[in-house]
Amino acid sequence: MDRIIRILLISFIPGAFGAENPCQEKQGKTWVAKPDYEYRLDESPGSLADSKILDQDGLGVCYAAVASTVLQSTLTGNPEVSYLQIALDYKKAETKNRNSGRLKVTRSTYGSTSDETLLDGGQFCEKFKEIKKAKLCPKDKVALENVEEDPSVQYEAFKVMGGFFDYSRKFDPQKRQKMVEGMKAAFGEMKREAEDQCKDSHRTLKGYFPRIHSKIQGRIRDLEWDTEQIKKRLTSLDSSLSQSRWRSGDLQASVDEREAMISQLEEALAKDLKKKDRRSTMLGKLLTRKEKLRQIRSRMRTNERTLDSETRSRDQEQEEFSDLQELIATKEDLKKDLYEQLNAAETELGELRKSDAALGSERPSPEAGMEGATEFVPNPETEKKAQKKFDELTQVMSDVRAEQSYSDAAKKAFKAAGISLPDSALEMLDYRGYDLKNKALLSKPSACFKEKMGEWAYEDSSRTKEVLAENFGDCVNVRLDQSLKDILTLASKLGDQLELETLFEHIGKDPIQFVEKLIGSNCTPEDRISIPDAISCKNVDIWGMLQQNPNMNREEAARDPKFVSRVTSKFRDSAFSALNQGRAAYLSVCGDFFDNPKADSKMGAQCKGGFHAVTIAGFACKEGRPQYLIQNSWGYPEDSDTGEPSVSNGRTWYSETSIIKNFNSIETLEGGAQ
Amino acid sequence: MMTLHVFLIFSAFAFGGGAQVKETWRVGNFSFKTEVNRRLGIMVNPACAVDRPSHPCGAIVFAKRASKKALSKEELSGGKNPGAVLCHRSDGSRVVIAEDPNGNQASFCVFKDGSLISSSSLLKMALRNDLGGKGR
């Protein structure tokens, strides 16, 4: 379906190749503009619909950026090809053919000399055959082209590679090989040293197991006894509380009864008092018998005694009740405390039993226990030297010093070893019997890794490579050129999957191959992209056309209307031929054109900024004038006036006239299935 | 790398600014925003989108002095991004390559004060300066 749509679109491209203006047609005797239209590859279903705008930074690899886009538009499935790899393959071919100083890198001193990387400058067709031979990598498999990494690494990386290239060129192949052998030997020594240290630290860590196990067992026994005691106390407390509550209830009832009795007595006494008072008056005496009055007085005395006794009893009971309430509250608090203690002890017990079980599975068997239980015993004679190397390699001492305490360091070490121990278990460890080295080895085995507490082994990780690069020279007591340190550091950033020994191999053989390996480290043979044999590269350039006009120089040619017409005709033929196949074209123009589209460099004769390659990704007729859609590799363009991000999908339309005024070459791919 | 992150995060968030946010760019696992300084017609970090004479942005100070004329043909060989080359020539700045949400790349010149300017804008300013400020 896409193919049908593309063919329909292509049918809008003027059939009139050559010198005639494709955007005008003859009506009678006059030329009139054809209706405006656009044909572009960057919109669906065009071959560049998924193409991204690149930013080549300070690298002179425009030729490769365009080559990548042209290949994307040409190859089946429109893959994104790594442009940095194209550039490297190009330069590899150039080195092979010329064996000259073209790859020389000159460090920049502002104003006078240039800071040229080994990739700068090129033409697509010139080395297409060699690029075709190379198996290219997709962009997403090349570390340098993926901004997940250090985003500024691209240019910096090539500067480092350039520095290394300069350095390695100082030596003939034999000397270089010797240097690499030395590096490999030194690295081998360091690796062996690190491996020994890793084993030591593993043994040391294992040496802690019996001690920790014994401590944990002791603590478990203590805690079990504690919990038992707490439970007994709780039982006893519960019983005592129960009795106190019973007594408290009895007292409350008794106090209540006495209160009632006291009230009754007080009431009876009040009544008797009234009677006694009434009968004690003159009239009362006359009317009342003496005996009656005596009875009242006698009853009152009895009641007063009873009242006094009951009141005293009530007060005593009330006091006892208050004391008992206080005691109950105290016992409740104690019970709460005991439960908290019990919970804490049971939690700790649970953790300790779990840890001990985990430790038990790793703990050496009694037969093998002697080795596992062997503590690391430093050898004073060799210790200092070995320690220095290991510390430098792993930076372990600084990590230890940075820790708050040794138990923190140990905690970290056990965590790294996959053993989770409760704080209480770590705090039980007695470090006094261990020297600093053992703690250091425990704290962070940077150069080691562990697998289910199996043997620790040297790990060729990025970080290790970085540390190695920093300390390599010092560790092996050799002075390394900065460029070598830089390249090792770069390798550590880019080549996670690259073993250092492999890198050394490449350094020894071919610096370009090394760089290629370095940036394409994630690209496997299965990932590689092939260019079919049937595809070839065709170029039309001013230099070639001038060969046919030896009496004319470039500037004179640019002023000659016939020459210009011939150039225009050939340019159109190439551009339309490519676009008609749904392919982009490689265009080299004077860079001044991008500063000012009206610039006229006389086909590059007066070019101030040097030539620059861009992609032709479309054609349009606007008001009878042909225009070409240009995709640059200087990042997403902005509107020249407002600074807003550019419209037109990140590409810009330029008039054919402007292009021809600054034209250098057009290069297209031909052949191969479409 | 960490410093760079601090630069970008600082430039993207710390300054604030009232102008409309135009673009979001991604570098690795974090993103930053740019805005247009309408007076100069350039793409910068949001804080530099508004002119503050008392606190000039490093990016704008540098851009106002930039000159493409100072670059030799050799320095631009291979079609290097001229804005990036200008940035690399400064001691206090570095180029970072970021991607828009569609995966298109753009390079930015990041300065020590956390300000940044797109390489395209830097080139535009340099060309404008070479014309005596008549480029707009």
Describe, in plain words, how this protein is organized in 3D.
Chain A has 674 residues and is of the alpha+beta class. Chain A has 23 helices and 11 strands. Chain A has 3 domains: 260 residues, Cysteine proteinases (Cathepsin B, Chain A), CATH 3.90.70; 169 residues, Helix Hairpins (Orthogonal Bundle); 104 residues, no CATH class. In chain A, a hairpin with a 2-residue loop joins strand 8 and strand 9. The longest helix of chain A has 107 residues. The N terminus of chain A is likely disordered. Chain B is an alpha+beta fold and 136 residues long. Chain B has 4 helices and 6 strands; from the N terminus they run H-E-E-E-H-H-E-E-E-H. In chain B, the strands form 2 sheets. Chain B has a 3-stranded antiparallel beta sheet. A 3-stranded antiparallel beta sheet of chain B has the order 4-5-6, sandwiched between helices. At the A-B interface, strand 8 of A face strand 1, helix 3, strand 4, strand 5 and helix 4 of B.
Write a compact overview of the structure shown.
With 674 residues, chain A is an alpha+beta fold. Chain A has helices at residues 2-10, 62-74, 83-98, 128-133, 153-169, 173-279, 282-287, 290-362, 369-373, 380-394, 396-402, 406-416, 423-427, 436-443, 462-475, 482-494, 500-509, 511-519, 542-547, 554-559, 561-580, 592-595, 656-661, and strands at 24-27, 30-33, 37-40, 448-449, 457-458, 536-541, 585-590, 611-622, 625-631, 652-655, 663-670.
Indicate the topology:
The complex is a heterodimer of chains A (674) and B (136).
Chain A lengths: L1 H9 L13 E4 L2 E4 L3 E4 L21 H13 L8 H16 L29 H6 L19 H17 L3 H107 L2 H6 L2 H73 L6 H5 L6 H15 L1 H7 L3 H11 L6 H5 L8 H8 L4 E2 L7 E2 L3 H14 L6 H13 L5 H10 L1 H9 L16 E6 H6 L6 H6 L1 H20 L4 E6 L1 H4 L15 E12 L2 E7 L20 E4 H6 L1 E8 L4
Helix pairs in contact in A: 2-3, 3-18, 5-16, 6-8, 6-10, 6-17, 10-15, 11-14, 12-14, 15-16, 17-18
Chain B lengths: L1 H13 L8 E5 L2 E8 L4 E3 L13 H8 L16 H7 L4 E7 L5 E7 L4 E3 H12 L6
Antiparallel strand pairs in B: 1-2, 2-3, 4-5, 5-6
Helix pairs in contact in B: 3-4
